[in-house]
């Protein structure tokens, strides 16, 4: 028991390690404590917070630490090339944090099933012999914080190893090393790559386990669509979508952006639907974090934005001189798209009022607006101030366009 307690304590210390200690460590190694700490919050079965909110909070902490590190590097006279490498490493850490936490959350049910299979293998008999199931976060229903920590580490390790993917799937680039669990635990988890566990997974007929969705959803889907169509729907739903960019016509053209991206080994294709859209080919696709480290992004030439959001803004057809309200602005993607559209006539200035209940997301808008060259058009204020200011300045009681309100496409002023 003392041996187990010491190992759990060591794991806790590792998770609490300050990620600022060495910003140039390997990507996952430097992000692992933050990832596990975030997973610990979303792993419990009851009363768990929203995974995306947990990720945003963790990213804000990483961003704050990154800014401090950049200041320290500048004060020490560090070369620009080293600071650029530090920025690239930071964006990779951000990408791994969000990808790992959300990935484990999405694939949790299948990963838990795989974890149980691994521990049940003959090679793992020592787990039961010495009663050390807790080192793997078992039983999975346990609410004990230390068991939750161990479970988070194991699920994360299995995710990094690609245990959730079918054997026919290409894992893409080489996965980072799993250096955040001890050797004995890792030896058991690596059984997920063995023939026995893979064969057991191939024999699974439960759609909920196979595609990591709740039983009630899988059952209802199968009842409504039939087994084959339901399974096809779940298979496609689990595939990651393409990386889609929205070009900023105030900074560049689509042809120029595609050419500029090609110099950084990105293969971009012009979309047939949105004239602002560039889709990155899968074989030329890099991490979003890497995209946001490009000078092109820093200079406001593009943003990462779903084509559906772009089309929604185009469908609104705002005209210069209008006042537009985005009542579900988030981090301002659609608000910025609309602001760019309204810049075509400098004689008829427009305003975009951005509102959202998530104040942390709203705080990201001013920097994005400045990067895009529309900082004078986008206003972030409480909702009540939006309408009061619009009514006072225009002498009427409303806005010309509304984005983000169900059932409302536009409202005349």
From TrEMBL:
Keywords: Methyltransferase, RNA-binding, S-adenosyl-L-methionine, Signal, Transferase. S-adenosyl-L-methionine binds at residue 356. It holds the Pfam family RsmF-B_ferredox. Residues 1-21 form the signal peptide. Residues 233-413 form the SAM-dependent MTase RsmB/NOP-type domain. One of its GO terms (biological process) is RNA methylation. PANTHER family: NOP2 YEAST -RELATED NOL1/NOP2/FMU SUN DOMAIN-CONTAINING, RIBOSOMAL RNA SMALL SUBUNIT METHYLTRANSFERASE B-RELATED. This is SAM-dependent MTase RsmB/NOP-type domain-containing protein. PROSITE patterns: SAM_MT_RSMB_NOP (PS51686). Belongs to the class I-like SAM-binding methyltransferase superfamily. RsmB/NOP family. GO terms for molecular function: RNA binding; RNA methyltransferase activity. The keyword Methyltransferase applies. The keyword Aminoacyl-tRNA synthetase does not apply. It comes from Pinguiococcus pyrenoidosus.
């Amino acid at each position: 028991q003392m041996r187990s307690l010491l190992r759990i304590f060591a794991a806790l210390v590792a998770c609490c390690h300050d990620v600022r200690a060495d910003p140039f460590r390997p990507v996952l190694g430097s992000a692992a404590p933050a990832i596990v700490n975030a997973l610990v919050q979303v792993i419990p079965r009851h009363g768990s917070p929203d995974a995306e909110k947990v990720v945003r909070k963790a990213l804000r902490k990483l961003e704050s630490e990154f800014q401090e590190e950049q200041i320290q590097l500048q004060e020490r006279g560090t070369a620009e090339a080293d600071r650029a490498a530090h920025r690239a490493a930071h964006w990779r850490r951000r990408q791994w944090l969000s990808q790992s936490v959300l990935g484990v959350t999405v694939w949790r049910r299948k990963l838990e099933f795989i974890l149980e299979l691994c521990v049940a293998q003959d090679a793992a008999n020592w787990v039961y012999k010495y009663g050390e199931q807790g080192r793997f976060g078992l039983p999975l229903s346990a609410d004990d914080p230390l068991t939750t920590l161990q479970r988070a580490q194991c699920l994360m390790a299995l995710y990094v190893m690609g245990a959730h993917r079918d054997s026919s799937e290409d894992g893409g680039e080489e996965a980072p090393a799993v250096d955040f669990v001890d050797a004995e635990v890792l030896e058991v988890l690596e059984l997920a790559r063995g023939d026995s566990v893979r064969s057991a997974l191939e024999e699974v007929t439960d759609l909920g386990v196979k595609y990591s969705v709740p039983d009630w959803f899988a059952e209802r889907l199968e009842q409504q669509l039939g087994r084959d169509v339901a399974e096809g729907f779940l298979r496609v739903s689990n595939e990651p979508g393409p990386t889609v960019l929205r070009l900023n016509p105030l900074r560049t053209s689509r042809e120029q952006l595609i050419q500029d991206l090609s110099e950084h080994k990105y293969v971009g294709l012009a979309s047939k639907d949105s004239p602002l859209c560039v889709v990155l080919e899968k074989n030329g696709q890099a991490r979003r974090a890497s995209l946001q480290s490009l000078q092109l992004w820093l200079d406001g030439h593009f943003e990462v934005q779903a084509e559906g959001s772009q089309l929604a803004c185009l469908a609104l057809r705002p005209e210069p001189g209008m006042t537009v309200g985005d009542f579900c602005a988030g981090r301002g993607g659609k608000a910025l798209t609309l602001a760019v559209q309204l810049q075509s006539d400098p004689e008829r200035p427009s305003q975009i009022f951005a509102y959202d209940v998530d104040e942390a997301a709203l705080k990201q808008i001013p920097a994005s607006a400045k990067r895009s060259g529309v900082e004078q058009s986008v206003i972030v204020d409480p909702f009540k101030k939006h309408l009061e200011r619009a009514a006072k300045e225009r002498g009427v009681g409303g806005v010309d366009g509304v984005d983000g309100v169900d059932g409302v496409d536009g409202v005349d002023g």
